[in-house]
Target: NADPH-dependent FMN reductase
Amino acid sequence: MLVVSLAGSPSQRSRSGVLLDIAGDWLQRRGVELVRYGVRDFDAQDLLHGRFDSPLVQRFIEHVEAADGLLIATPVYKASFAGALKTLLDLLPERALAHKVVLPMASGGSVAHMLAVDYALKPVLTALKAQEMLHGVYAVDAQIGYAEAGRPASLAPELQERLEESLQQLSAALARRQPPHDPQLLHERLTSARWSI
Model:
């Protein structure tokens, strides 16, 4: 199984990024192949000018196309997700998330912003035709601790429990995922079939 991990924060130090890293590490320990991207990896001019032909944008699109799932995290700004993330998602083809399982995650300053996942991020992911959209995880910034002085990043126990439950749901959804039909295989089967009237 291949999952693309996408960090939506434009900041180098980001609580949503910590949440995403912990989730990605959990998947990797269970044998999932993970390809990590962040909006900070991309040239700002490529994003702002919609350069679909940028080599990194092309590689990102190819990884998303090949992936079974998408793990995406964003900070919440002004009751919505990061604008840089929206700009990057706009570069994906119209049906980029067809046949994919998506787990959206977000972090914000208070619980007042928890609906940003449902009302801002999920509609964009749905427009990209995500096959299965999981409930998602929202974290208050105070629940996420940065790695410092030899101490690893950490999550509050309640958040850790919710995240692991969501990741188990993601793993189960990936396991039952139906791969897209190969049009060439269908054509071969139809042409080689015996027909009778």
Strands lie at 2-7, 33-38, 69-77, 80-81, 101-108, 132-133, 137-140, 144-145, 154-155.
